Amino acid sequence: MPTQPRTSREVRLAALPEGLPRPEHFTVARIPAPAPGPGQALVRNRFFQVFPALRTLIGGGVPGAPMPPLRPGDPLFGAAIGEVLSAPDGSGLRPGDLVHHWQGWREYAAVDATACAPVGDSLPDPVARLGQGHTAYSALAHAARTRPGDTVFVTGAAGAVGSLTGQIARLLGAARVIGSTGSTAKADRLTAELGYDAAVIRGTDPIAAQLAEAAPDGIDVLVDNVGGDQLQAAVTAARTGARFALVGTLARQLSPDETGTTAPVELDTFQLIVKQITLRGVTGASGTDQEWIERFGGWLRSGSVTFPHVRVPGIDRAPQALHELISGRHLGAVVVEV
């Protein structure tokens, strides 16, 4: 049996920020190690995901959303991969197993055994469980019903969702895939590595003008991680019968002048009606569905899909990793290696 820990570290919200959170708004606290209760497993976390929606939770959350708001003193949470140290009898878990759960941002966690999903060997790298491929696939295949020959526009294409969306759109038969991003360097990687035919860059020419040039015949599918003027541009570029999958609202979530809890945008309703555009929201998918995992694993092993991500070593660097994510420093998912 592994030695039972006496202490653990966890990242806590120290103070509510004015504007975007920075590393000084968090603290890494050392606390007594958690003692698992009835039906719980003790897990030593090895990796956890850093995700931009934490800004919304820090800002007070959104009514009806599945994740609660964060208040000063609360530990952060999120998707994690950890090693089971002890597990209740009959749970099917054994010491040494790797499991996926939602008590990240800490070294050790007492997790209900029913909330632990065994990782297994379906993926060539267990960290890929912390990617957003399932969300990208759900947006493309289910919400937007992507068909062979479609022209697809992905906003926030260099993020955790977008960096996989272009690749998966290709596998679903999209004829042309266009992504938006914030820098020329990222745009070059989108087109060279991640399945995109063209990229539009915010902060240069108007997005609508760039999109009109990249997709002169219009778009059939939108996977929107950003909202704001990029969603407006997509409505202008939409063909009749276009299908929009709304995944995120980064334009407002990561604005220093907003709380990150609302995302108003003005759309021309006449265009929605005349073009028969459908809009469907997509909530974050956990990626623990075994059918999806097997498909994703096959794509990764064959080289059909890559998993762009950055690994940040050490829990002490987690607050800085969140700041870098919000600042747009990285491409793909951001994962802390505990």
Task: Record the SSE blueprint.
Layout: E1 7-13, E2 26-32, E3 40-50, H1 54-58, E4 80-86, E5 98-101, E6 108-112, E7 117-118, H2 133-143, E8 151-154, H3 162-171, E9 176-181, H4 184-193, E10 198-201, H5 207-214, E11 219-224, H6 228-237, E12 238-246, H7 250-253, H8 269-274, E13 278-281, H9 290-302, E14 309-313, H10 318-326, E15 333-337
Parallel strand pairs: 8-9, 8-11, 9-10, 11-12, 12-13, 14-15
Antiparallel strand pairs: 1-2, 3-4, 3-6, 3-15, 4-5, 5-7
Keywords:
338 residues, alpha/beta, Rossmann fold, 2 domains, six-stranded parallel sheet, 25% helix, globular
Could you describe the 3D structure shown?
This protein is α/β, with parallel strands linked by helices and 338 residues long. It folds into two domains: 138 residues, Medium-chain alcohol dehydrogenases, catalytic domain (Quinone Oxidoreductase, Chain A, domain 1), CATH 3.90.180.10; 149 residues, 3-Layer(aba) Sandwich (Rossmann fold), CATH 3.40.50. 25% of the residues lie in helices and 25% in strands. The strands form three sheets. Strands 3, 4, 5, 6, 7, 14 and 15 form a seven-stranded mixed β-sheet that branches. Helix 2 crosses helix 3. The protein is globular. The chain starts with 6 loop residues before the first strand and ends with a strand. The mean pLDDT is 95.
Number of helices: 10
Order of helices and strands: EEEHEEEEHEHEHEHEHEHHEHEHE
> Based on CA inertia axes, which overall geometry fits?
globular
Q: For the residues shown, what is the average pLDDT?
A: 95
Total domain units: 2
> In total, how many beta strands?
15
Helix content: 25-40%
Low-confidence stretches: none
CATH superfamily of the largest domain: NAD(P)-binding Rossmann-like Domain
* Rg: 20 Å
